[in-house]
Design a protein that fits this description.
Strand order of the largest sheet: 1-2
Shape: globular
Structural class: mainly alpha
Distance between the termini: 33 Å
Largest sheet: 2 strands, antiparallel
Mean pLDDT: 76
Number of helices: 7
Order of helices and strands: HHEEHHHHH
Low-confidence stretches: none
Strand content: under 5%
Length: 204
């Protein structure tokens, strides 16, 4: 078996592992929300699970946020197959944006952290990074990550130079913009990769 094929299989397996982990954590949290057992969640280790999962931020339009997480992670697992590949990129963007937003909510608004939620967000970040690597060649993925990092530095530098404070609105804007920027980068890189794989040269 070729070395590239082995590396690709390891990358795919690791990506699927992050996706299954995110799905399992959200399903676990959803079961606690639906049964009303938000206090004393096993594995919370004295963290703020009750304060985060029991807050009004954990429900949108009467639907637990964890239910959306379960659906998004399930669709991401399904998008690993060729049949559902088209929804793969938007799902990565949604999961990354949601993870960024809820980290901001926990850090700035609730000032409390749920270890299970943070683990799910970590799985989202891992899936996003591996998804970028899966969708493009390493050099293209590195370019997208460098551009996003440069944009973040410029955003915070702009806030500092204009005398604006870092608050919920500015952090939420940065989180959403990171998700959108990475999502657009992935779309462009995947399109370039698809054309190159079809035999087109770099000029035409």
């Amino acid at each position: 078996m070729k070395r590239e094929t082995i590396a690709r299989n390891v990358l795919d397996f690791t990506f699927l592992g992050f996706a299954v982990l995110g799905f399992a954590i959200n399903l676990y949290l959803l079961s606690h929300q639906l049964t009303g057992r938000v206090s004393g969640i096993a594995g919370c280790g004295g963290g703020g699970c009750e304060g985060v999962i029991g807050s009004r931020w954990s429900v949108v339009f009467g639907i637990p946020v964890a239910a959306g997480g379960v659906a998004a992670w399930f669709m991401l697992i399904a998008s690993s197959t060729e049949h559902f590949r088209k929804v793969h990129i938007p799902l990565l963007g949604v999961i990354a944006g949601a993870a960024g937003w809820f980290v901001v909510v926990q850090a700035v608004i609730l000032k409390d952290y749920c270890p299970w939620c943070m683990a799910a967000h970590g799985a989202g970040l891992g899936a996003l990074l591996l998804g970028v690597l899966r969708m493009a060649e390493v050099c293209g993925a590195a370019s997208a990550v460098k551009q996003t990092a440069a944009w973040m530095v410029a955003a915070f530098l702009g806030l500092m130079l204009t005398g604006r404070t870092i608050n919920v609105i500015s952090l939420a804007g940065v989180a959403f913009a990171i998700g959108m920027t990475l999502d657009n980068s992935i779309v462009v890189l995947e399109n370039i990769y698809r054309h190159l794989a079809a035999g087109k040269d770099r000029v035409t």
